[in-house]
Design a protein that fits this description.
Chain lengths: 457, 300
């Protein structure tokens, strides 16, 4: 948004002379690229994940080397502050030129005309969806074919476990690889969760006399009620019955919370509380911390997203293993498939320059660098492979995450309008279902309200 | 610089109005810029539909009609009222006792500073510390309960306990400050009254209820008015500990306003909610003022 103009100070002639020389030098250097004149353009780039900051700094350094006329300033804010600051910055007209964007947020930004269609900008016009992992570009494509974000990474869900705890229970990590699940009796997945649950007297969940009210180790770690998307909580369960969030892959006009397959899946999951296989709401509250539960031995298995890999890998005192999600009634596991993108603010004074940055962030050059950092899966196959190797070097086999994408066992994140209002309505309701004070069948009425919001929003 | 004539003129003119205005000016600028102007703008916005980024659209009283039919709003009012009753009730009684103890038993400045200490801790920090202490699984508070042979309590995670817990956390933080205000009020009661009471053989309890409390009434009234206004606006403790949950059990009015505005971009409706809070506070303050007759004293 802001430009650093090397302007000679009128009062100090010497400084002026130096500045003039510098300006000339910049202008000369700028001639190599598509220079905008006698000034170096500064672009502001925002992201929220502190784990990824070093990787993107490396990327930006490489970009600046190739584009001497451009300077990129990276700012990182934590997830909660990020969206507040971004909203405020749009109002003040002082936001970033390029920012990391989320699937749940961009439809509202696009509706308000705050993000640019990348296909209208020179550098990003010819982007081919095939350059990225299957389907990622679709997630960022608007209803009229606009491209609102350049895919940068993706994430899926898998099961984290402590191998020592599994072996202590007489199981082997291989036993976790071939689990199946269904909403009626929970399949072999429930058997394992039951076996891994231990009460205060040392009785296991699948043995007689298990005290469900006095549990020491829960088979499955709780990550809360999951709100509207249940990304790590129930989307993979419901998804493996063939259920989808809405009536279309993206930009659906109706949600499917009235579907018995979802309601049965929720009933099974939150039913684990009464069985003593998952912690009650009372224990986890509004800020669940499943990695802490796993790390402290409070829970045996934790379903979570690939973006949490660095957090789980840093847990001390456990022998971390990763297994695939259980296979559902559709015959294979299903994971939610979510991806971040880089968007350009419509308030940017340098949209063409911003597009060059976005193109670079979405290129093999940058994404391989990010992959090598081993913190996240980049959106381009070459970047993904680099990440697989980087994680392998850390001793982590991440194929349970990547297999979902390779086999296309995925469920899209619900990209719809009015996400903010829908979240406000559905989140307390999902909490009630978790607490046990609301019947899942009432989601049918809730669904009607949600669809009204979509229609009206 | 002709200093002497200036001094001479000063001596004759005793009117300090201009100087006073000059001193008031900076505060007035702040008040107008950060209070009056936003308030007027808020009133206007409450009559519009505004998503912050596209121009506001006039919708008349629609937001207020929506509000009357919004169950979350009514729930927020109920939750806020419950919070205020617990918070102010416990805090005022505790602060009054503390203040009397400070006056009757000890004149130690160190003690007074200690009593004030929790108030110096920021709201967010206090809330976080209690969140850890009272954590269901790992908190030392629940550990104590189990040692005593009691069941663990989901202080911040059960619908019954969330509001009382938050209210009491804030009592802990504000009690000392309120006690100091009351203590200052106690200093205005002449010693002679207490001496007379002692001569007549009145007990400590009787003195408290017949002398201290009635003579303290204007101060207590003022303290109540100020603390009730603050109490109605509770936000940060809730945002840090429960974020309105479980379900809507601690979704106080301020949190709902914030959520409507910054999470749902419904600034018009959020403004209408804020106006409702303003009106509510004005009514409550007026009633309190009249009931406690805070403007009059019984000392003369």
């Amino acid at each position: 948004m802001r430009t650093t103009t090397l302007r000679p100070s009128p009062t100090r002639r010497r400084a002026a002379a130096i500045a003039a020389t510098a300006a000339a030098a910049v202008a000369l250097a700028g001639c190599a690229g598509s220079s905008t004149g006698q000034q170096q353009v500064t672009l502001d780039y925002w992201l929220w994940d502190a784990n990824q900051l070093p990787a993107y700094q490396t990327c930006v350094d490489a970009f600046e080397e190739q584009n001497p006329d451009l300077h990129v300033r990276i700012s990182q804010y934590g997830w909660d502050d990020y969206w507040r600051k971004l909203t405020a910055s749009f109002v003040a007209g002082a936001g970033p030129d390029v920012f990391t964007d989320h699937l749940t947020r961009y439809p509202e930004l696009a509706d308000r005309g705050l993000v640019l269609d990348l296909s209208t900008l020179e550098a990003t016009a010819g982007v081919d969806a095939g350059e990225f992992q299957e389907g990622l570009a679709d997630l960022w494509t608007g209803q009229g074919g606009e491209l609102y974000g350049m895919p940068k990474d993706f994430d899926t869900i898998a099961l984290f476990y402590d191998a020592a705890l599994i072996e202590e229970a007489g199981l082997s990590p291989e036993d976790l690889e071939t689990l199946d699940w269904n909403p009626d009796d929970g399949g072999s997945f429930e058997e394992v969760i039951a076996h891994l649950s231990v009460d205060a007297n040392g009785v296991r969940g699948d043995e007689d006399g298990f005290d469900a009210d006095n549990v020491e180790v829960y088979g499955l770690a709780s990550n809360g009620s999951g709100g509207v998307d249940g990304q790590t909580q129930w989307s993979w369960l419901a998804g493996s019955t063939g259920w989808t969030f809405t009536n279309a892959d993206v930009w659906g006009t109706e949600y499917n919370f009235d579907d018995p397959r979802l309601q049965d899946s929720l009933e099974w999951l939150f039913g684990l509380v009464d069985k003593g296989f998952m912690a009650p709401y009372e224990e986890v509250g509004t800020e669940p911390n499943p990695q802490q539960a796993l790390g402290s031995g409070r829970a045996a298995i934790s379903a979570n997203g690939s973006w949490m890999l660095p957090s789980y890998a840093s847990l001390e005192g456990i022998d971390l293993g990763i297994a695939s999600l259980p296979s559902g009634p559709v015959g294979h596991p299903v994971s939610m498939y979510n991806g971040l993108g880089d968007s350009i603010s419509s308030q940017s004074e340098h949209p063409q320059e911003a597009a060059r940055l976005v193109r670079f962030l979405g290129s093999d050059d940058c994404q391989v660098l990010v992959g090598q950092a081993g913190v996240v899966f980049p959106a381009r196959p070459a970047g993904t492979e680099a990440a697989r190797e980087a994680f392998a070097d850390q001793g982590l086999d991440v194929s349970p995450f990547l297999d979902r994408v390779e086999n296309q066992d995925t469920l899209f994140f619900p990209v719809t309008r009015s996400y903010g209002s829908i979240t406000a309505l559905v989140t307390p309701i999902m909490d009630e279902i978790y607490i046990g004070s609301r019947d899942v069948a009432t989601l049918t009425e809730v669904n009607a309200q949600v669809n009204d919001m979509l229609a009206g929003g | 610089m002709s200093a002497p004539p200036l001094r001479a003129r000063r001596a004759t003119r005793r009117d300090d109005t201009r100087l006073a205005l000059l001193f008031i000016l900076p505060a007035t600028v702040g008040l107008v810029t950060f209070y009056f102007w936003p308030m007027i703008r808020g009133l206007w916005l409450s009559l519009t539909s505004w998503d912050l980024l596209s121009p506001a659209e006039f919708v008349g009283l629609q937001n207020y009609r929506d509000m009357a039919a919004d169950p979350v709003f009514w729930n927020a009012l109920r939750v806020t009222a419950l919070y205020v009753v617990i918070n102010i009730g416990v805090q005022t009684v505790a602060a009054l006792l503390l203040a009397v103890l400070m006056q009757r038993l000890s004149q130690s400045t160190l003690l007074r500073s200690l009593v004030l200490a929790p108030y110096l801790v920021s709201n967010v920090v206090a809330a976080l510390v209690f969140l850890w202490i009272l954590d269901f699984q790992l908190g030392i508070g629940n550990q104590l309960l189990t040692w005593l042979g009691l069941d663990r309590i989901g202080f911040f995670t059960s619908q019954t306990w969330a509001i009382p817990t938050i209210a009491l956390v804030n009592v802990w933080r504000h009690m000392g400050y309120t006690a100091l205000l009351i203590f200052a009020g106690l200093q205005t009661i002449p010693h002679t009254v207490y001496e007379a009471a002692r001569m007549d053989g009145a007990s400590e309890t009787r003195t408290f209820f017949r002398i201290t409390v009635p003579l303290l009434r204007p101060i207590l009234g003022l303290v109540l008015i100020i603390s009730v206004i603050g109490s109605f606006q509770v936000f940060d403790t809730v945002a840090v500990t429960t974020n309105g949950g479980p379900v809507d059990a601690s979704r106080v009015l301020q949190l709902y306003i914030y959520d409507k505005a910054f999470a749902q971009f419904d600034f018009g409706y959020a403004s209408a909610l804020s106006v409702a809070l303003l009106v509510l506070l004005m009514v409550v303050t007026f009633v309190q003022y009249r009931i406690t007759r805070a403007g009059q004293t019984d000392l003369n």
